[in-house]
Amino acid sequence: MSTKFDVIIIGGGPGGTPAAMQLASQGKTVLLVEESGKLGGACLFVGCIPSKIIRHWADEYAVKLKYSAQEALSPEDREAAWNEIMRKMQTILSQRSGAAMQMLKHLSNLRFVAGHAKFVSNNELVINEKDTGRKEKYTFNKAIIATGSHSFIPPFKGNGVQDVLTSEVLFSQDKLPESLLIIGGGPIGIELAQMLTKLGTKCTIIELLDSILYGVVETEFVSIISNQLSSLGVNIYTSSQVQEINKSDGHFDVTFTDANGSEHKENFEDVLVVTGKVPNIESLNLDSTDIKYDRKGIIVDEYLETSVKGIYATGDVTHGPKFAHTATYEAHIASANISAGNNQKVDFSKNTWVLFSEPEIVAAGFTEAQAVQEGYDIITGVYDYKIDAAAQVMNSPFGYLKYVVNKKNSEIIGVHICMNNASSLAGEASLIIANRLILKNVAETIHPHPTLTEAFGILAQKMLSKS
């Protein structure tokens, strides 16, 4: 005997919980199942929120250090700082997850189950309940798979591979390492290198590709971030490859080759691997269904529907961008399509994300290289914040705003910002891209003075006058 729901959603993160609440508020009977028993997903517990908490307090300690007589945090101060940050982090995480759970309780037709779900057919699954150990069978009319992803660890040689850290476990460490090798020079690796260095950890980055942040931000911004990392004392090896990771006497001995083919052997207290994500699909028993998938995740169409009609997938478990806010966007798209038929398509060209580095980077829409690759005939424009009134008032006259514009119709298809607190400008960048604004729209917008947002109108007007 099985219990039937209108919709079953697997995964209580940003790709699942918003969908559950949206569908339940529309009167559908919804079952939300989350293996951990907590709402929030990887972003809340092991990703974007913990890292931003650590970043904030790392900056606080860096400021205190600047105005003290110390050149660096003592081992005792580092331990005390880390313990304090961990306490603050756990408080925030508990508050946010608990608040989400309370919101669910207001929806009488939404049931939450802590447990592991696996499919047994195209409309049926079994849940192994976490608290009781019981296995219960459920059927559904529609379903959403939002199980997220986990860190990918390449098949390195050596006896130390099994002991390397990933971003999932870094934030639960009892103490900070004295030295850390970060394998992977993407956004996560860059953010962590900067914040941990400020807390006194000596960081080294090894990146397989030609540069850090390869292909994900504007090329002229990469050198800015590289220089900042170097000024903090971070060693960066690009076009370099790890050959072997061994562990002895509590330390890691790592062998790698650099861009010139020279071999290096260096010792680190810890090794962190941030080389990408793998979708959480192994234990879903998808082979008992007709759902198509590959190593990159579940295959969905433009409506986020899988190869099985009525089953949708959102977030990191699919081929799409791996961001919490994008997963939430997808959750609303999938919910709308379940409620009203497939009438809403995803459009990742309007995605926006922030690199919380120093300086920060906002990327909305296409980069210049991506736009060219997509076949657009483009023009670009750059605003230098050194001439900006607000930036000068704030004693932070550094930064750049860049537009990538479709020459055919003057639509702004890319907005990119590199400056301190660039994230505060991400909202306008998002609106420009999401609403497909043209230069004239932005130029005619009255931006208040003196604010950092004035640059959006000034740059648009400048580019219009040259066209």
Automatic annotation (TrEMBL):
Cofactor binding note of this UniProt entry: Binds 1 FAD per subunit.
Pfam families for this protein: Pyr_redox_2 (PF07992), Pyr_redox_dim (PF02852)
Record-level GO BP terms: 2-oxoglutarate metabolic process
GO molecular function ontology, one term from the record: flavin adenine dinucleotide binding
Covalent S-S links between cysteines: C43-C48
Cofactor dependence: FAD
Keyword annotations from UniProtKB, A to Z: Disulfide bond, FAD, Flavoprotein, NAD, Nucleotide-binding, Oxidoreductase, Redox-active center
Flavoprotein recorded as keyword: yes
Residue numbers binding FAD: K52, T147, G148, S149, D316
Location of the active site: H449
EC numbers: 1.8.1.4
FAD/NAD(P)-binding domain location: 5-331
Residues involved in NAD(+) binding: G184, G185, G186, P187, I188, G189, I190, E191, E207, G276
Enzyme class (EC, first level): oxidoreductase
Domain Pyridine nucleotide-disulphide oxidoreductase dimerisation span(s) in chain numbering: 353-457
Family: Belongs to the class-I pyridine nucleotide-disulfide oxidoreductase family.
Name recorded for this polypeptide: Dihydrolipoamide dehydrogenase
Species annotation: Chlorobaculum tepidum (strain ATCC 49652 / DSM 12025 / NBRC 103806 / TLS) (Chlorobium tepidum)
